[in-house]
Amino acid sequence: MTLGIVAPLAYGILALIGGVIGYRQANSKVSLISGGISGLILILAAFLQLQGQTWGLTLAAVVTAVLVITFGFRLVKTRKFMPAGLMAILGLVALGTMVNQLVILR
Question: Which of 9, 19, 48, 99 could form a disulfide with 53 if both were Cys (CB 3.0 to 4.6 A apart)?
Answer without folding.
Answer: 48
